[in-house]
Amino acid sequence: MIYQYIMSKDVEFRPLLRSDSPGALVDPARPVTAHGRPIEAGRRVMPHAHPRAQLIMILSGVMRLEAGSDTWIVPSGHCAWVPGGLEHALSSETDMETCNAFIDPAHAGVARAETACRVLRLTPLLREMAARLSEAGRNGSAAPEWQRLGLALIDEIARLEVSDLGLPGGRDPRLVRLTRHLNRTPAEPRGLGELARAVAGSSERSLARLFREETGLSYRQWRTRQRMLVAMQALDQGQSSAEVATTLGYGSASAFIAAFRRTLGTPPQQARRRMTRAGQAARRSGPPSGGGSA
Question: What's one Pfam family the UniProt record gives for this protein (predicted)?
Answer without folding.
Answer: HTH_18
